[in-house]
Amino acid sequence: MTCLICRRGEARAGSATVTVQRGRCTVVFKDVPADVCENCGEYYLSEEVNREIQHRAEMALSNGAEVEIQAFAA
């Protein structure tokens, strides 16, 4: 797929670091499977991965975390 941001690169299977902020809570997910633009680095998550990221971020928030770093393992 052609990148929607730079419109020059192609998105290829890879991994990304995803940061989610909810109020005062910040969760960083490392090694998230994503399609990554070879030109600008923009990443695209599948619907399934996005749902998992959102679920984990909500769990961190409900556990009272202010900052949390997680390795992503599906």
What is the compact description of this entry?
The protein has 74 residues and is of the alpha+beta class. The protein contains one helix and four strands. Strands 1, 2, 3 and 4 form a four-stranded mixed sheet that branches.
How would you sum up this structure, described in words?
With 74 residues, the chain is of the alpha+beta class. Helix content is 22%, strand content 43%. Strands 1, 2, 3 and 4 form a four-stranded mixed β-sheet that branches. The two termini are 24 Å apart. The model has no long low-confidence stretch (mean pLDDT 92).
> Quick one: how many beta strands?
4
Number of structural units classed as domains: 1
Number of helices: 1
Second rung of CATH, namely the architecture: Roll
CATH class categorisation: Alpha Beta
